[in-house]
Design a protein that fits this description.
The chain is α/β, with parallel strands linked by helices. The protein folds into two domains: 256 residues, Rossmann fold (3-Layer(aba) Sandwich), CATH 3.40.50; 92 residues, formyl-coa transferase, domain 3 (2-Layer Sandwich). 41% of the residues lie in helices and 13% in strands. The protein has 20 helices and eleven strands. The strands form three sheets. It has a six-stranded parallel beta sheet with strand order 3-2-1-4-5-6. A three-stranded antiparallel beta sheet has the order 7-8-9, covered by helices on one side. Helix 1 links the parallel strand 1 and strand 2. The longest helix is centred in the middle third of the chain and has 24 residues.
């Protein structure tokens, strides 16, 4: 039986890949009933890197606890199924391009006519206005357009920008925004009786993650204006991307002279330290030891070649010291001095870390076809309404008949819909 703060809330999900599915999985973890609409072949993430037909780890990790309803939305009879469901639906989450939802008859205006207090969350890559409104978009493009990719400062061997491969940041961040927006809208509806239309975008999420760097503050931004003028000049000259990136300083300047907020290779692995206050930086210097202030020296200028040369030498000395001891030895030493630190783990190691396990950050699930699996647990801990993974991801179409019967369809009507290809 479902549990959590959103028990009784019903969500109809028209989304795929990461952002929308992750947002709706968070709602499921809160106890909402999430009905995921999939095409007859299954959504693309179900089919990506399958380890058995119709099942992939990518899909399992983003769709637990949901019901799978297979509809061929090109068929008017399938769209009628949606229209019969909506009066009993609280939230619709959709991540189609703005022009697609209207063509399929599942746009906000159409569905709100069936339930006026509906909460309709429309996720797009770029927003519903402007020249890019109807363009498709994925996380990698949002990284590029928003500045996230350039800010990471990576180049491949050919001088092209390196992608942020560790995590699709715009996608996952937007998924959290979707769940956050849904909860806020439910609270508003509880107070006023009003539903609403909500927009989330990959671009806005990626920009929000860079708020401090993206903001413009004329009184304190002389350096920013100078470097952007240099960037524009180099682009006008046709300079290669690597040269433009160097001029901008993305990913470069913050690393010059950085001793206190970074990761170090050790004798057998790597360790990260984070010291952003003067008192913590003093503890780092005592633990290493070093007297070098680097970036935090008031006279340090990362544009001064002499300063950069000295920084290279001094940081190199610190790096050499870290390579003399093992990760465990450094953790013991740093912790003894009160320095915030931690090992550089692979995620497979982090899932088994005593700290992870002690705080129930993993959850064991059973899938009817693929068996046992361990996933990351729900994001939140709530004392009065605990969150819980409501089950594993659904097999394709597993709940189609159940959902249709709940909407009043007879077995004969369901068979007729299946015969014409409207459902599967």
């Amino acid at each position: 039986m479902a549990s959590g703060p959103l028990v009784g809330i019903r969500v109809l999900e028209f989304s795929q890949i990461i952002a929308g599915p992750f947002g709706c999985q968070n709602l499921s973890d809160m106890g909402a009933e999430v009905i995921k609409v999939e095409p007859p072949e299954g959504e693309p993430w179900r089919l990506y890197s399958q380890f058995m037909p119709g099942e992939s780890k990518h899909f399992h990790a983003l769709n637990r606890g949901k019901k799978s309803l297979v509809l061929n939305l090109e068929d008017p009879a399938a769209r009628e199924v949606v229209h019969r469901l909506v009066p009993d639906i609280d939230i619709v989450v959709i991540n189609y391009r703005p022009d697609v939802s209207a063509k399929l008859g599942i746009d906000d205006a159409t569905l709100r006519a069936l339930r006026p207090d509906l909460i309709y969350i429309d996720n797009t890559a770029w927003g519903r206005k402007g020249p890019w409104a109807n363009r498709p978009g994925y996380d990698i493009i949002a990284q590029a357009v928003s500045g996230l990719m350039a800010a990471d400062g990576k180049l491949d061997e050919g001088g092209s920008p390196g992608t942020i491969t560790a995590s699709p940041m715009a996608d996952y961040g937007t998924g959290i925004a979707i769940a956050w927006a849904a909860c806020a809208a439910l609270y508003h509806r509880e107070k006023t009786g009003e539903g609403q239309f909500i927009e989330t975008t990959l671009l806005n999420t990626a920009l929000a993650m860079q708020g401090m760097y993206g903001m413009d503050l004329p009184l304190g931004d002389d350096l920013k204006y100078q470097k952007m003028a240099m960037v524009e000049e180099l682009r006008a000259q046709g300079a290669p991307y690597a040269q433009v990136l160097e001029a901008h300083g993305a990913g470069g300047v913050p690393r010059v002279g950085n001793v206190y907020y970074r990761a170090y290779a050790t004798k057998d692995g790597a360790v990260a330290v984070g010291a952003l206050s003067p008192s913590l930086r003093a503890k780092v210097r005592a633990a290493i030891p070093t007297e070098y202030l680097g970036l935090y020296d008031p006279e340090f200028d990362a544009r001064n070649p002499e300063h950069v040369a000295r920084a290279t030498i001094e940081v190199g000395k610190v790096e050499a010291r870290f390579r003399e001891l093992t990760t465990a030895e450094w953790l013991e030493r740093l912790e003894a001095h009160g320095v915030p630190c931690g090992p550089v783990n692979f995620v497979e190691e982090a899932m088994l870390d005593p700290q992870t396990l002690a705080n129930d950050m993993t959850v064991q699930l059973h899938h009817d076809v693929t068996g046992e699996e361990t996933q990351v647990s729900p994001l939140l801990r709530m004392s009065a309404t605990p969150l819980e993974a409501q089950g594993s991801s659904p097999m394709l179409g597993r709940h189609t008949d159940e959902v249709l019967r709940g909407a009043g369809y007879s077995d004969a009507e369901i068979a007729a819909l299946r015969a014409r290809g409207a459902i599967a």
